[in-house]
Design brief:
The chain is an alpha/beta fold and 766 residues long. Helix content is 35%, strand content 19%. The protein is built from 24 helices and 25 strands. Helix 9 (326-339) packs parallel to helix 10.
C-alpha cells in the first residue's frame, strides 16, 4: 500500500466507514495521517481493580470476571433503561503484569462473601445468592469469585448488552472510574471479552490515548483503530520536504517522527514538539510561496516608471480642497518613490476609518495621469464604486481629468477606457473582464474588502518586447503590469500581515484628519430599542441625521429571518409610523437599481432624508458629515471589524458629538467579546488585534475566499516566533534558489506547488 491508497482499502474500513471518513476530509492514507488528535487522555496501565485511578479524568484499564449483571428499565415516560454489571478481580490474570495485586485481600477458595456479597447487595440481590428481586429484569450472578476487587459497570440505553454480557465472562474494561459509595464505578466503559488466558491480549501499558475529531457514525476509537493499522507502514513512506540541515539547525523532528509523536506519543511533551514542527511546516510553505511570488514579479514583470517633480507634486495638491496631514504627506512620499521605479509597486495602505486613505490613493492615480497614463480604482461593491466615482469627480471638478465608471451594470464608458480618453477609471471587479481594455494602465488601487486574486492580477499583465535593460538594470523578456496599491480601512494586525501579506510593502496612516471626532459607543439590549429611538428623535430635532443598520433586506420564509431579524423595509416602516413620524426615512440596500441608490444617497447628503435605514452597503465610502448617530440592530450578528467599519460613517462632522448604539443580544462568548471590544475602544488597530484573538487567524484570512488551505496547526499570534523563523528561512532559501530547482529543494517545490500553487500563482513558476 501507498500513502495515496484510499482508506476504503484499509482493513476494517468498509463502505460505510469510508463514507464517514470522507465527511472528515479523509480519503487517502495521507489524509489519515494529517487527521491528528485534538487532545489526549491519560490511560493508566492495566492493573487490579483496587488500583484503578478514581479521579474521573484518567482512563484506567482492568480485567476481571462478571459476577452479576442486570437490566434496569427506565422509570417514567420516555426514560430509557440501563445495563449494570459487576466485575471482580481475577488474581491469576495479573501474575505476569507489571502492576501486581499486592494489598488485595482475597476470600478463601470456594467461599461466598466478601466481594460477592457486596456486589449482590449493590445490585439489589440477596446476599446469599439466588435471583435478583423484582426491581430488575433478567438479573444473573456467577457461582463464585476468586478476586477481592469490585468494579461497578453501567451502560445507559444499552439494552443490547443483555445478549452480549453475562455472569461468568472474563472482560477487559477501560474507562474513567469514580467512586460511587464504597465501590469504583465506570459509566459507558469500553470492553472486550477474554476467551482464555492463552488467547488473552497482552496487558496494556500506561499511555496517552489520542482523541480524534469524529463525526456521526464514526467514533474517535474507530479512527484510532484505523490509524493503528496504517501507521507502522505509512510512516516509512513519509518523505520530509525540509532539508535535513534545516531540521538539525532548528532541533526539530523529521516529518515522519512528528506524525508518530502526534498519533502515538510516548509522553505529554512529544505532541508539543510535533505540533511545533507541523506548524513550522505550514508557515514555511506559505512564506516560501509568498517569497517566490514576490521574486517572480520582481524578476519577470515591469511597471512604467512615472515621472515626478516638485511641480507635479504641487499641481496634484492643488486639486485637493484641504492640506494633507503629515502622515498623508509621508505616505504620498513613499508612493511617489515606488511609482518612479520599474519594479512594480505592491504596497498596502492601511489606516483607521476616516484617516484619509482615499486622498492618498487619488494622489497615486493622478501621478499616472500627469504622465499621460491611466489609473484605475477597484471597489468591492457597485455602491462603493459609485461613491468613489462621485467623490473623485467632485474633487477633480474644473480639471481636464476625465473620470469614468465601469461596473456590471454601467459600461457606457468602455470606449473611452480603451482609447485612453478616460484618465481615471472607477469600477468593480468588472474592470478585470475581457471586455475591458486599457490603453495605458499604470496604477491600480484596490479598495477595501476586495483583494486581487493571483489570476486576476495576471490578467492585467501585458506582453513586452525583449528588454535589453531598464532603468533598474534588469534585462530579458518581461511582462508589463501596473503598480498596485491595496487599500484597507480595517487595520490588519502586524502578525497577520506578515503571514498572508508578506509580499506587500506597508504604509500606515495614523491619527484623524481635522474635523473628525471620536465616536461615543453604547451597547444596549433589544428591550431598550424604544428608548434608543425616542432619544434619536431628539437628535433629529437638532437638525442632525442618522443611520439605522439592519442585517436583512426583507424577511422571507418561515425561519429566523422572518420571525426575529429586523429588515430594511420593516424597520423603515416602523420608524415612519411609530418613532419618527414627520421625518423623512429612506431605505437603501444592494438590490436597488443604481439610479435609485444614487438618488436616495444624494437626498441623504443634501439633508432631505433624516434617517437612512440600510444594510451593510453603507459600511464604507459613504461620507455625510451631518450624520451623527448610528443604530446597529442585531449587532451581535456582525463581525468586529465590520462593526468598526460601520460606526466609521459617523463622527465626520466638525466637532459635533457622535454616537453609535449597538443593539445586541449576545448568546455566545465570542459575541459577548465582540460587544465588549467594540464598546471599549475606537482604535482600529486595537480592534484588529482583539478581532484576531477572538476569531483566530483562519477566519480573518478568509482561506476559502483566498483559495488557500486552512492552517491546522499554526496559530497567530501564538506562533509568532515560528512565523518570524519561517519568514527568515523562506527569504534565505528563495534568495539562493528563486524557483526551488536545487535537488535539496525538490520536495519543498513539489509540496508547495500542490498546496499553494494555484492560489499563489506558482503553477507557472520555472
Amino acid at each position: 500500500m501507498r500513502l495515496t491508497t484510499a482508506v476504503s482499502e484499509l482493513p476494517g474500513v468498509g463502505k460505510r466507514r469510508a463514507q464517514a471518513l470522507g465527511r472528515l476530509g479523509i480519503v487517502t492514507v495521507t489524509d489519515l495521517l494529517r487527521h491528528t488528535p485534538m487532545r489526549y487522555e491519560k490511560e493508566a496501565a492495566e492493573g487490579a481493580i483496587g488500583q484503578l485511578p478514581t479521579d474521573g479524568k484518567t482512563v484506567g484499564t482492568a480485567r476481571g470476571e462478571v459476577v452479576a449483571c442486570r437490566w434496569v428499565p427506565g422509570q417514567g415516560y420516555g426514560r430509557k433503561g440501563r445495563f449494570e454489571a459487576t466485575l471482580s478481580d481475577l488474581a491469576e490474570d495479573f501474575s505476569g503484569l507489571e502492576t501486581p495485586t499486592a494489598g488485595l485481600v482475597l476470600p478463601p477458595s470456594g467461599t461466598r462473601g466478601g466481594a460477592e456479597a457486596s456486589v449482590a447487595s449493590s445490585l439489589g440481590a440477596p446476599a446469599g445468592g439466588g435471583s435478583a428481586g423484582s426491581t430488575s429484569e433478567g438479573s444473573t450472578s456467577a457461582g463464585s469469585t476468586s478476586g477481592g476487587g469490585t468494579l461497578r459497570l453501567t451502560w445507559f440505553n444499552a439494552g443490547y448488552l443483555r445478549e452480549r454480557i453475562h455472569a461468568g465472562m472474563r472482560l477487559r474494561v477501560s474507562g474513567k472510574a469514580k467512586m460511587f459509595g464504597p465501590y469504583p464505578q465506570m459509566v459507558g466503559a469500553k470492553w472486550e471479552v477474554l476467551e482464555d488466558e492463552a488467547a488473552s491480549p497482552t496487558a496494556k501499558a500506561d499511555r496517552l490515548r489520542p482523541v480524534y475529531p469524529a463525526t456521526e457514525g464514526l467514533a474517535s476509537t474507530v479512527i484510532e483503530r484505523v490509524v493503528e493499522e496504517a501507521l507502522p507502514w505509512a510512516l516509512t513512506q513519509v518523505v520530509d520536504p525540509l532539508p535535513e540541515e534545516l531540521l538539525t539547525h532548528h532541533a526539530m523532528p523529521s516529518l515522519g517522527e512528528a506524525l508518530r509523536m502526534m498519533h502515538r506519543p510516548a509522553d505529554r511533551e512529544e505532541p508539543k514538539a510535533a505540533r511545533r514542527r507541523l506548524a513550522f511546516n505550514e508557515l514555511l510553505l506559505l512564506q516560501l510561496g509568498i517569497a517566490m511570488r514576490r521574486a517572480e514579479v520582481e524578476q519577470k514583470c515591469a511597471a512604467p516608471a512615472l515621472h515626478y517633480s516638485e511641480a507635479i507634486d504641487a499641481h496634484i495638491r492643488e486639486r485637493f480642497p484641504f492640506a494633507l496631514t503629515d502622515t498623508q504627506s509621508a505616505a504620498v512620499a513613499q508612493l511617489a518613490e515606488d511609482l518612479t521605479r520599474e519594479r512594480p509597486m505592491n504596497r498596502m495602505l492601511q489606516g483607521d476609518v476616516g484617516s484619509g486613505k482615499t486622498v492618498v490613493a487619488l494622489y497615486a492615480l493622478l501621478m499616472a495621469v500627469a504622465d499621460r497614463k491611466q489609473g484605475a480604482l477597484m471597489a468591492p461593491t457597485e455602491l462603493l464604486a459609485e461613491q468613489h466615482y462621485l467623490s473623485i469627480t467632485a474633487l477633480l471638478a474644473g480639471s481636464n481629468v476625465r473620470v469614468a465608471l465601469v461596473t456590471g451594470n454601467q459600461r457606457e464608458d468602455l470606449g473611452a477606457v480603451a482609447s485612453g480618453e478616460a484618465d481615471v477609471v472607477v469600477g468593480t471587479h468588472a474592470l478585470l473582464s475581457a471586455s475591458v481594455t486599457f490603453r495605458d494602465l499604470a496604477v491600480v488601487v484596490i479598495d477595501e474588502q476586495h483583494r486581487f486574486g493571483v489570476m486576476q492580477r495576471a490578467s492585467l499583465r501585458q506582453p513586452m518586447a525583449e528588454d535589453p535593460g531598464g532603468t533598474d538594470g534588469r534585462s530579458g523578456r518581461r511582462e508589463r503590469m501596473p503598480h498596485t496599491l491595496v487599500m484597507t480601512a480595517t487595520p490588519i494586525p502586524r502578525t497577520l500581515s506578515l503571514t498572508l501579506l508578506g509580499d506587500l510593502d506597508n504604509t500606515t496612516l495614523t491619527g484623524l484628519p481635522p474635523g473628525r471626532t471620536p465616536v461615543q459607543n453604547r451597547v444596549v439590549g433589544p428591550g431598550q430599542s424604544d428608548e434608543v429611538y425616542t432619544y434619536l428623535r431628539t437628535r433629529l430635532e437638532r437638525g442632525e441625521q442618522a443611520y439605522v443598520v439592519v442585517p436583512a433586506i426583507e424577511a422571507r420564509g418561515g425561519g429566523e429571518s422572518a420571525q426575529t431579524l429586523k429588515s430594511v423595509r420593516a424597520q423603515a416602516e416602523l420608524l415612519r409610523e411609530k418613532f419618527l413620524a414627520g421625518y423623512e426615512v429612506a431605505a437603501v440596500h444592494g438590490k436597488l437599481k443604481r439610479e435609485t441608490r444614487q438618488r436616495v444617497m444624494e437626498r441623504f447628503r443634501r439633508g432631505e432624508v433624516a434617517v437612512l435605514v440600510a444594510t451593510t452597503v453603507i459600511e464604507v465610502g459613504v461620507d455625510v458629515p451631518n450624520a451623527t448617530v448610528m443604530v446597529i440592530e442585531h449587532a451581535e450578528r456582525f463581525g468586529l471589524a465590520q462593526l468598526h467599519q460601520l460606526r466609521g460613517r459617523v463622527g465626520r462632522g466638525g466637532g459635533r458629538r457622535s454616537l453609535c448604539v449597538f443593539v445586541a443580544e449576545p448568546t455566545t462568548e465570542d459575541a459577548e467579546a465582540r460587544m465588549d471590544a467594540v464598546a471599549s475602544t475606537n482604535d482600529g488597530f486595537k480592534i484588529a488585534e482583539l478581532d484576531l484573538q477572538i476569531r483566530g487567524m483562519g477566519e480573518i484570512l478568509g482561506t476559502r475566499q483566498s483559495g488557500l488551505p486552512a492552517m491546522k496547526h499554526a496559530t497567530i499570534p501564538g506562533d509568532l516566533d515560528l512565523l518570524q523563523l519561517a519568514k527568515r528561512d523562506a527569504a534565505a532559501i528563495v534568495a539562493g534558489d528563486p524557483e526551488l530547482t536545487a535537488p535539496e529543494h525538490a520536495g519543498l517545490r513539489r509540496v508547495l506547488t500542490r498546496l499553494y500553487g494555484e492560489a499563489l500563482g506558482l503553477v507557472d513558476v520555472g
